[in-house]
Design goal:
Length: 83
């Protein structure tokens, strides 16, 4: 994978009523394409967006959307309950 193929989804993190809310913009991904892991000190979101092969028709193309794998680590505040 080339470096310019790597993309980083935008995220919002905020607290509401003693809960930490994490929202990520993951256009073009299905639930099966994304993994979320919670540890004592972080939430990790990773996955991969695949390029549609049918768009490679051999003609001219301009591709501006990023494809490939991503990983975001969101640190949790000290003392966060992760259950």
């Amino acid at each position: 994978m080339r470096n310019w193929d790597v993309w980083t989804p935008d995220i919002d993190v905020f607290q509401r009523n003693h809960e930490l809310i994490v929202r990520a913009d993951l256009p073009g991904l299905n639930k099966e394409d994304v993994q979320v892991e919670v540890s004592d000190d972080a939430v990790t979101i990773h996955g991969e967006r695949h390029h549609d092969a049918e768009e490679d028709g051999g003609g001219a193309a301009r591709l501006e959307r990023r494809y490939g794998g991503f990983s975001r680590v969101i640190p949790l505040p000290e003392g966060a309950l992760t259950d």
